[in-house]
Each structure stands twice: as C-alpha cells, then as structure tokens.
Design goal:
Elements: H1 9-25, E1 32-38, E2 45-55, E3 58-63, H2 70-77, E4 80-85, E5 88-96, H3 100-110, H4 116-126, H5 132-145, E6 147-156
Helix pairs in contact: 4-5
Length: 159
C-alpha cells in the first residue's frame, strides 16, 4: 500500500523535522543535501532536505511536488542557493531543466546512483520493500512527475 501522505506539503514538512536538524549538525548522507534558498516573500533563508545527486560541479534535484514545491518557487525568484552536501557546503546557481538536452542530462545524473539512504527514503515514502529495482523505478517516477532542477556549484563556503 503506498503512503497516502507522500507528496503532500505536510509530509514534506514532517520529513524536514527529522532530517534537517540532524543534517545541519552532521553531514547529510551521500546523495542528499540541505538546500538553502531565499524566501520569495520574506527574503529570509529557507532550508529544505532534498535528494541531490552530484556529478562534478553539477547537482540535480527534483521538486517532487512539482509546482507546489516551495523551494522550487523560491529558486524561480532567486537562483542563488547554498547546498550542504556530504563533503561540505557550496554556493551555486539553480535553474529548472527546460530543454530536452538539459532534461536528458538531469535524468542521467539523477538516475546514475542509488545510495544507501535511498532505501530508507523509499521505505518511508512508498511504504514498500526497498529493493534496488523498486528504488530505481520510484526515482524515475519521481523524476518524470516532478520538476528537475540543475544546480551549478561555483564555490565552497568556508565553515
């Protein structure tokens, strides 16, 4: 039975209650990050835990809630972001993958790895048994239904 709360704003906030404080104190697990955007209405920093797959200086995330994702709306208003990943904190510029070649690149990067925390993420989000095939299928479904975002990292932030 799929999780009936998955994909809701409530569920996203609930996930943040557990992951954001932990990942703020310790490094997020590989394949995940804390994305800090600037609130489009308040101008204040807004932090969201996300799945973020990195290849070199490019990171791909997917706004799984699509147009309802607050972090996506914030990125549209101000593309300057900060991303805390397992190896440090980086500044970057985020934008939606808009054309076919960008979307193909984003899909290639997003689907290129399955990390250990993906299995936990799948079990919590889908309420199913997290086999590698199930996890990869879910990632493709999330990518196809969501809005892919490419983050170009430009420099590390000093601690």
């Amino acid at each position: 039975m799929p999780n009936p709360f998955a994909g809701s704003r409530f569920y996203a906030r609930l996930g943040n209650v557990f992951t954001r404080p932990t990942w703020s104190l310790f490094a997020p697990p590989e394949g995940f990050a804390i994305l800090t955007t600037t609130g489009r209405k308040t101008g204040l920093p807004r932090r969201q835990s996300i799945r973020a797959i990195r290849r070199g200086d490019i990171v791909v995330a997917v706004a799984m809630m699509g147009e309802r994702a607050q972090w996506l709306r914030n990125v549209r208003a101000d593309q300057e972001v900060t991303l805390k990943v397992h190896d440090g904190t980086h500044r970057g510029v985020a934008h939606e993958a808009t054309d076919a070649s960008e979307t193909e690149l984003a899909n290639d990067i997003y689907m290129s790895s399955t990390v250990s925390h993906d299995y936990v993420d799948y079990a919590v989000y889908e309420w199913g048994f997290p086999t590698r095939d199930n996890v990869r299928k879910a990632h493709q479904e999330w990518f196809d239904a969501g809005v892919p975002v490419i983050i170009q990292l430009n420099r590390s932030v000093e601690a």
